[in-house]
Design goal:
Layout: H1 2-20, H2 56-90, H3 96-103
Length: 109
């Protein structure tokens, strides 16, 4: 019974130590410390609590506007590229000499 009691006490102590320390300590030099509030608890910011905070609706609207603007720019770029490609196929590149002969553009002396 004494051995069981000692083992249980030791097991509880080990479990408590494991829960108290961080799980991953790959680099002991790195640390994170949270700011403490006046009450000693970690400091938090509640969105919308401050008078200058934007509402969630205005934040979402701004994000949607930014995404729409980005998508419109990308679509315009793709359209410009496709029109440019189509126009280059339509234009028949002929050497300047053949154009001079066809339209008699040669310099006259």
């Amino acid at each position: 019974e004494e051995q069981v009691r000692r083992w249980q006490a030791w097991d509880q102590k080990v479990n408590k130590e494991e829960t108290d320390r961080p799980k991953f300590q790959s680099n002991a030099k790195k640390q994170v410390q949270f700011l403490k509030g006046e009450d000693g608890e970690p400091w938090v910011w509640v969105m919308g609590e401050h008078p200058e905070d934007q509402s969630i609706d205005s934040i979402l609207a701004e994000e949607a506007r930014q995404r729409a603007l980005s998508q419109a720019r990308e679509e315009a770029h793709q359209l410009r590229k496709s029109v440019e490609k189509e126009l280059t196929h339509l234009i028949d590149y002929k050497p300047l000499d053949s154009l001079e002969q066809k339209f008699d553009l040669s310099p006259k002396s």
